Each structure stands twice: as C-alpha cells, then as structure tokens.
Amino acid sequence: MEVIIKLYQYSAYHNGFKVQDTTQIKSLGPEPIEVELKPFLLLEHKIAIGVFTCLKGAGKSFSIIRGYLSYGAVDPNVNANIKNSKTAGLITDIYMFPCRGKSASSQVDQLINAEQAEFNLSEYRDVNASYGMIWIDVEINPSSGCSWSKYSTSSNCEYLGQLVSSLKAKGKKVGIYSSAYMWETIMGSRSNCKSYTNVPVWYAHYDNNPSFSDWSTVSFGGWSKPSIKQYAGDKVLCSTGVDMNFY
User: Fold this and answer.
1) Which end of the chain is more exposed for a tag (fewer CB within 10 A), N or C?
2) Predicted local confidence at residue 44, as pLDDT
3) Which fold has domain 3-246?
C-alpha cells in the first residue's frame, strides 16, 4: 500500500470530484503488493524546478504531469514540467484529458508528436526526457464540443478503446482514471464497458480511508481490484495544495 500525493488547483466540488479551474488531474499506478511508502505527485500547472526539488526533499518520488487539455490541445507546460521533474530526480509520467468531440487517434498523435519534437531540442538533451506512462482521464468534460453526453454510452466505450489502442500503438503504457459516478454517467452503467481490465484503474472516493476496503461497493468497469484510490484532499506541501491517494 502506498500514499500518493496529488497537487491541485480547484474551485468547487462536483459529485465527489474537485472541479478544476481549467481541468482536473488524476493518477494511476501499479497494483498493491506489500506495505511501502512511495508518494506520488500530480501536476497540472507550470511548476518551477525549486518546487520539484522541495517535493523530492520531502520524500516524494513520482510525478504525473498533465499532457493534454480537456478542450483538445497539448498542455504548453508539459515538456518544461517533465524536464524539471526529471532534473529534480522524480520518476515522471503524463496524463491526458481527452476531448470527446475530436478524433481519439489525432489527439494521441498531437500529444506524442509535440513532446517528441520539443525533446529533440538541445535544451532537453541534458536530461532523460522520457516518461513512463500515459493515463487517460475518463470523466465529465465541460469544455465546449468535448462532452461525452452527446454520444451513446456504447460509442463512448468504443472511443475509450480507440484512445487505449492509439497510445499502445505509439509504444506507450496506458492506465485509466475514473469513478463509479463518472463511469456510470459516461458508460451508462457501472457494469458496462468491461473491455479494459488489462490496464490499471485508479478511482476516487473521498471517505478518508486509505485502503481498498470500499472497492466492492464502488467498483466499476469490470476491474476485480484497483491500483490506486484517491481518498482525501486539501493538504499542503511545499506551499502547494495536494490530495491524498493510496495503493
């Protein structure tokens, strides 16, 4: 089991989720094996290297950087944040918040091409700019033209599959973030869309309980067990807001 830290900027809560000023940030990770502390960080805005260094000094070891914005564009800060995170010595992943109204494969191409092109620049050659995984954020999308609600639940499930397969075709490891509420809203039922249990799942349930003991009551998507749980929020570390997660 692990405690995972999520950095955030938010304006309100909606059905147990913090609604971000611009978008929402999520995490995933490996399945639990034994008791061990390896905190994680999730980052959505531009982060100075001093903050990464502070977090590293506070015992955090892993950051997940927002790579793709909810309205269908590459996050302009993704490459700088990856560089700063890696320079500070953190294991680094990225995540994408897809726009349902745009082609899944084209969004994946846009994200991968953008980061690969910039990492060919000399300013990034002094660090290992590669990252580990890409996490797909499956939740209600408020951005114009990007809502899942305009499509059938069956086609939403197929669309998620297009994202997963497109990322895998690029050689990327993939994970999925959602919750019982979000999955039911987008896929039509918590028991629908069971095609992706071969990738890890991370779920949100704010019960202040750092364990998976609630999974049987909030499970979705056919996963027999989760990889990470977001269970509490509103902490501060290195003058930055964080949420608490567990695996």
Assistant:
1) N
2) 54
3) TIM Barrel (3.20.20)
